[in-house]
Amino acid sequence: MARPRQGYKLKDGSDAVGTTTVINRFKDSGGLINWAFAQGKAGLNLYDTRDAAADIGSYVHELIEADIDKADPPEPPKGFTEGQINQAQEAFGSFCEWTTLNRMTIVRKEQPLVCEHHRFGGTPDAWAMVGDNLALLDWKSSKGLYYDYTIQLAAYRHLHEDHFPSEKIAGIHIIRFGKTGCDFTHRYFRADHPALAIAWRQFQLMREAYEIDRELKRIAA
């Protein structure tokens, strides 16, 4: 997801908070803490293992972007091992296989959108025709599918409906590849899936709490 360099802006020029910024403010950090503990217990350097995983995911995203743009594939990052390259290629191959099987064609990608009413912005990874239906796409590099992804996707669905009311989407596809590149998962939510309605309400509450939190910090400082 490519956040604009200048951040998200409302029509009057004031700042709008990003979708993931709101969600991450209230995100459960237990999984990250457990992961860091496991790295230390195994005698691994926390930052080396974190950066290696992040670099693999970033490279897969670069391969996907190049494929969508019909550009030459990027060179692997400097210092990548053969194993890391193979892991990234495996994840990318799974993505390509999925797109072929589902007759997927990208029609729009990484377009920043801002909701004036709720004062937040977001950048969906892509819009695509999947078969005969328009859908939002979001790809993740992670160990699993987490519930906060649903909140993010519900916010993106709202942004889409806000900006493209005549373009009805059939649903949202999550394409996830593991940080080691050996795992690939696809999850689909219909646009009218009840989980998205609940998740959108959750995001609205988070958005309100985010402003309250900022104001409380200002007053208490």
**How many helical stretches?**
6
**Whole-number radius of gyration?**
19 Å
How much of the sequence lies in strands comes to 15-25%
Rounded mean pLDDT is 85
The share of residues in helices is 40-55%
Number of domains as seen in the coordinates: 1
CATH topology (fold) name: Lambda Exonuclease, Chain A
Question: How would a textbook summarize the main sheet?
Answer: 5 strands, mixed
What string gives the helices and strands in order?
Answer: EEHHHHEEEEEHEEH
CATH architecture: Alpha-Beta Complex
Overall 3D shape = globular
Name the structural class: alpha+beta
> Distance between termini?
33 Å
Number of strands: 9
CATH class: Alpha Beta
Short description:
Residues 46-51 have low confidence and may be disordered. The two termini are 33 Å apart.
Give a verbal description of the structure.
- It is a single chain.
- The protein is α+β, with helices and mostly antiparallel strands and 221 residues long.
- The protein has one domain: Lambda Exonuclease, Chain A (Alpha-Beta Complex).
- It is 48% helix and 21% strand.
- It contains 6 helices and 9 strands, in the order ββααααβββββαββα.
- It has helices at residues 19-25, 30-41, 46-68, 82-101, 147-163, 194-220; strands spanning 8-9, 15-18, 104-109, 113-115, 120-122, 126-130, 133-141, 171-177, 184-190.
- The strands form 2 sheets. Strands 3-6-7-8-9 form a 5-stranded mixed sheet, sandwiched between helices.
- Helix 3 (46-68) crosses helix 4 and helix 5 (147-163) packs across helix 6.
